[in-house]
Design goal:
The structure is a single chain. The protein is of the alpha/beta class and 230 residues long. The chain contains ten helices and seven strands. It has helices at 5-13, 29-36, 50-62, 95-104, 106-109, 123-132, 165-170, 172-176, 180-201, 206-229; strands spanning 19-23, 42-47, 69-73, 87-93, 114-119, 135-145, 148-157. The chain has a seven-stranded mixed beta sheet with strand order 3-2-1-4-5-7-6, with helices on both faces. Helix 4 packs parallel to helix 6 (123-132) and helix 9 (180-201) runs antiparallel to helix 10 (206-229). The relative contact order is 0.11.
Length: 230
């Protein structure tokens, strides 16, 4: 099974998995690829929607893995039992929804060693959320595919010291590793917000002034991130 660049990076972060639960599995590509690599002993492909789950089941059957990869209709991890998985992957959905899945599934997730998470939005908020809920980020990666940027992280249970605002927003591990994709992303972000600031400076009004302050603060955080990543 050939994975997309994004899922290849997710797979690398899940390199210790033996019993995998893939939440929002879509077409089941990730568990199929990891099973074919010889890494996994067992996998559960889960999705809230019947259509994608049916496609996943077809793909699993075509690859001759029906006996080793289960499919389950599930809202988040509700269909997962404690002890069934050592690693849970949640990828390709918004940060707020991902946070809800972790909150709703706290009981079963206590039995999981590792989570690999790839939120599509609210990234800074999500990193803070993880620390507040007793999770510890142990690795991060970021890839660019089809013009979009995808940050992701490996997470374990445990306390972690607080990060700076810049680290929460852009990822402590990405900054410390001078990650090239993050460097490119910061350049793009700086260009976008500089243009927004220039337009706002030509306008007037209380709401515009407030928005300009927000944009300038965003630019300050970007500038700090660029200094740290050099």
């Amino acid at each position: 099974m050939q994975l997309s660049k994004r899922l290849e990076a997710v797979a690398r972060l899940a390199d210790t998995a033996k019993r995998l639960a893939d939440v929002g599995t879509d077409h089941g590509h990730l568990p199929i690829a990891l099973m074919e690599s010889g890494q996994l002993e067992h996998a559960i492909a889960m999705d809230i929607n019947r259509g994608p789950l049916a496609h996943a089941r077809e793909n699993i059957e075509q690859h001759g893995l029906s006996g080793r990869i289960e499919t389950r209709l599930s809202d988040g991890v509700q269909a997962l039992e404690p002890g069934e998985a050592d690693t849970v992957v949640v990828a390709g959905m918004g940060g707020a929804l991902m946070g809800k899945i972790l909150l709703d599934g706290e009981t079963v997730l206590r039995s999981v060693d590792t989570l690999v998470l790839q939120p599509q939005s609210e990234i800074g908020w999500f990193r803070r959320f993880l620390h507040e809920r007793g999770y510890r980020i142990t690795a991060e990666d970021m890839v660019k595919e089809d013009g979009k940027y995808y940050p992701m992280m490996r997470v374990e249970h445990g306390e972690q010291e607080s990060w700076s605002d810049t680290e929460y927003q852009y990822g402590s591990y990405l900054l410390k590793s001078h990650h090239q994709v993050l460097k490119e992303f910061l350049e793009k972000e700086e260009h976008i917000y500089t243009e927004i600031a220039e337009k706002l400076q030509r306008a007037s009004g209380e709401r515009t002034a407030e928005r300009l302050r927000e944009v300038k603060e965003k630019l300050r955080v970007i500038a700090r991130a660029k200094e740290e990543i050099q």
